[in-house]
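TODO from last week: model DUF559 domain-containing protein.
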Amino acid sequence: MLAKAALCTPLTRGWWALGVPADDEARHRLTTTALLRHFGSKVFASHQSALVMAGLPLVDVDLTRVHLTRVDDRQSRRQPAFTLHPALGVALTPKERLAVAIVQAGAVNRPISALAAADAALHRKRLTAADLTQACALLARHPGTATARAALVHAEGRHESPGETRLAQVLRHLGITATPQVVLERDGTRYRVDFLLEDAPVVLEFDGKVKYDDRDDLFAEKRREDLLRSWGYEVVRVTWTDLRHPERIARWIEAARRRSRAKSA
């Protein structure tokens, strides 16, 4: 009755939450918290559940199931709402658990799931590249680890958002080399751009906003682009939708290169 009245939301057997979670991530966090309290020190959050608890980006992950890893028991257990994974055989620090969770998330979801979380963890200085390498070695015999490890070779702490991580991935697949987070300066004015092509004065900016609600923000972005162009740079702006069409991004970049060459001819 309480659930029907939306006063409480069932999370897992014997556990309820007051009210209705705002979204799937909030529900997953609550369910993970409930299960951690239920099992106590016998388990720790792992896979994407650990990413949720750590506040790391969630890209292409399944949030319908909570993942926990046992501390000692080598038995696995699968229930409708959660999976208990067997112990890894070694004691892990919280930092090591987070690195392991990133690799696990990539193994059971998609490589980009691990890469987006890794970029954020590196950017926030919560992990190092060595931590990720060690986690991959620990999980070397686990299914999916090889694929996650191949993606994590490209982990980059200079990426400031999942959108930038995805754009960098698209550029690699296109064979385009660009440097992230480059500072451009002239006459005392400094701008930091998301990417700068290595072979041409072409700036790539990831725009995560669907639209600009504030006219001042829109004006500031336009002024910034105009100024960069006055400095001799071409600007290519990429949105979430564009990331699903790499060929479109490739055309825009090539057009920007042509414009740049025409200016210098």
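Done. Residues 202 and 234 are 5 Å apart (CA to CA).
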